[in-house]
Design brief:
The chain is globular and about 85 Å long. Among the domains are: 85 residues, Phosphorylase Kinase, domain 1 (2-Layer Sandwich); 173 residues, Transferase(Phosphotransferase) domain 1 (Transferase(Phosphotransferase), domain 1, Orthogonal Bundle); 36 residues; 115 residues, no CATH class. Helix 4 crosses helix 6, helix 11 packs parallel to helix 14 and helix 15 crosses helix 16. The two termini are 43 Å apart. It is α+β, with helices and mostly antiparallel strands. The strands form 3 sheets. A 6-stranded antiparallel beta sheet has the order 1-2-3-4-6-5, with helices on one face. It has a 3-stranded antiparallel beta sheet with strand order 7-8-9. Strands 10-11 form a two-stranded antiparallel sheet. The protein contains 22 helices and 11 strands.
């Protein structure tokens, strides 16, 4: 076990044990230099199980989680293989599991459970939309953490829990947990699909609503009204029944369908349906009397203005008029506009503009851009490709702006490799554009190469075998110098983007592996001498000067971003000064 107070990997100080079970123990740790707390999961190698098999499973799971970027999923930032154990450093999630909530409080308020259910649908829908789809297969209250703000986090993707004793009541096998698992997860009864997670979600909501665990004998999921007659005939009871059908074809077919049902749960109540039927017949009687007049009015209005609310311009206008905190509406209007006219740029441009208008990217904004960019038509063709076919210039500038936006996002969270890779993807589409300015092409080419290089390093099982990548430190130095040459604000137009760009380049130049690699590469500078650590420091100081000159125009958010960037750069310069002292000032 890790000792309280010990420091691992020269970065993470162990503060306390927060939980244990199976083959693993979880600790609270702090990176004192960054003043940020993390959770460290230790899987020891001295158990009775085949640790190599365990390790292989852990590597697969952690690599998968590193690529995720969702507000209801934890981020993994480090994996450390020591002599005694395998350590995973991830977000520390304050709160308690929903299993603990059930153990202490029994059945939960149905409105609260519906809200949790919608959050579960959101995160599972995100996993199902990956390529290839990720089927979670082990949804249950124990795998959901309730944070102090009332939101839930999905915390466990199997890992060492797959190897627990099968005799336990809630044993997590490689296929799921008995009681919560769908029939097709056991006995070769079929392939697991997104509908498998629908079943598991229904079983989880059942437990939360009734307080009775389906993982206990007789492993049955009864109608909610069996436990509480107040649920009889309610939409919520019908939703759970449909989720937990034995035949996958009889369940909701996607998390989107289940989300819609939860959002409109009371429409399926028996009382509400009877009321709607009575109102329908009354309405039908009156509509017959007025139908001729309505048809006449419809024809007149159609000839005059058409169905205005269904037009592309209407939805773009609604995007512009929506409040900044109504990003669900903004995403919805954007999707509708794109569906109507995928060959027009205005909806994409407005979405990118709204997301990049301040110095903070929210989880809703990240989901919106991902969903809209991934939209496809019935044939599976990416809708964005229609814009490229009809308006190459608008497409090129949109890709350039998307590259900047994703690079800006890389400064927002721990999923920076994924965002830098996406920035490289969109910049890579315009490296030969005939519409971009020379300075913009230069920036797109440099970040495209750097992002591709960074993604390849991150994909090599953390071994970082640079010699296997056709890109050396001399090329990397040249591309970083290209990015910060000239007026950075002119290249990116938005001052906050320029701050992030300068900060990221400065920190990359100061990174120990990079600066040592630059010096060892014996890069020749313009005056003929070889690059030294002092030269690297000079370039970083120049970058800091560029940031200082950026006019914030009384923008408090931009001022804060500038201050944070300069503080980070000052810290990087101090690290180089320390290295210079060790090397005698060279």
């Amino acid at each position: 076990m890790l000792k309280i107070g010990s420091v691992i990997d020269n970065k993470y100080k162990i503060l306390s044990e927060v939980g244990h079970g199976g083959m693993s123990t979880v600790y609270l740790a702090i990176n004192e230099r960054a003043n940020k707390t993390w959770a460290v999961k230790e899987v020891r190698k001295d158990g009775t199980f085949d640790f190599e098999a365990v390790k292989q499973g852990l590597v697969v799971e952690t690599d998968m989680l590193k690529k995720f970027n969702h507000p209801h999923l934890p981020s993994i930032i480090d994996v450390i293989d020591t002599a005694d154990s395998f350590l995973i450093v991830m977000d520390y999630i304050e709160g308690r599991s929903l299993k603990s909530v059930l153990d202490n409080g029994g059945a939960q308020d149905p409105d609260q459970v519906i809200e949790w259910g919608k959050q579960i649908c959101d995160v599972l829908g995100y996993l199902h939309s990956r390529t290839p789809s990720i089927i979670y297969r082990d949804m249950k209250p124990a795998n959901l953490m309730l944070k102090p703000d009332g939101n839930v986090m999905l915390i466990d993707f199997g890992t060492a829990r797959e190897f627990k004793n099968r005799a336990m009541v809630e044993d997590t096998t490689c296929l799921g947990t008995r009681g919560y698992a769908a029939p097709e997860q056991f006995g070769g009864m079929g392939e697991t699909t997104p509908r498998t997670d629908i079943y598991c979600t229904g079983a989880t909501l059942y437990h939360l609503l009734t307080g009775h665990s389906p993982a206990e004998p007789p492993y049955e999921i009864k109608p909610l009204s069996y436990w509480d007659p107040a649920y009889a005939g309610t939409g919520l009871e019908k939703i759970i029944i449909k989720c937990c059908q034995q035949d996958p074809d009889q369940r909701y077919q996607s998390c989107g369908e289940l989300m819609y049902a939860l959002e409109n749960v009371h429409l399926e109540d028996d009382i509400a349906k009877k009321s709607r039927n009575r109102k329908w017949w009354a309405f039908l009687s009156s509509i017959i009397v007025c139908i001729v007049a309505i048809i006449g009015m419809f024809i007149t209005n159609a000839l005059k203005s058409g169905a205005e609310e269904e037009t592309y311009d209407y939805y773009v206008a609604e995007m512009k008029d929506s409040a900044d905190n109504d990003f669900d509406d903004i995403e919805d209007y954007c999707q509708k506009a794109i569906d109507i006219a995928p060959d027009r740029p205005e909806a994409y441009e407005e979405l990118v503009e709204r997301i990049g208008k301040d110095s903070e990217i929210t989880g809703e904004e990240k989901r919106a851009i991902e969903h809209c960019l991934a939209a496809k038509d019935d044939s599976g063709t990416e809708l964005l490709s229609y814009l490229q076919e009809s308006d190459q210039e608008s497409y090129d500038y949109l890709c350039y702006d998307l590259g900047l936006l994703y690079y800006f996002m890389s400064d927002e969270d721990n999923a920076s490799y994924d965002n830098i890779e996406k920035a490289a993807k969109y910049f890579g589409r315009v490296t030969e554009s005939k519409y971009l300015k020379e300075s913009e092409l230069q920036l797109a080419n440099s970040i495209s190469k750097i992002g591709t290089y960074t993604a390849k390093l991150a994909a090599q099982d953390n071994s970082f075998k640079r010699e296997e990548i056709d890109y050396d430190y001399a090329m990397l130095w040249q591309d970083y110098m290209s990015i910060i040459s000239g007026d950075v604000v002119e290249k990116v137009e938005k001052p906050r983007y320029a701050v992030v760009l300068c900060k990221q380049v400065a920190l990359q130049l100061a990174m120990k592996d990079n600066r040592e690699g630059f010096v060892k590469a014996k890069i020749k500078l313009e005056d003929g001498h070889e690059l030294t650590l002092s030269d690297i420091k000079i370039e970083i100081e120049k970058i800091k000067t560029q940031i200082e000159k950026i006019d914030s125009d009384d923008d408090e958010s931009l001022d804060k971003s500038k201050s944070n960037a300069m503080a980070a750069i000052d810290n990087a310069i101090r690290q180089i000064d320390t290295a210079l002292d060790k090397e005698g000032g060279k």
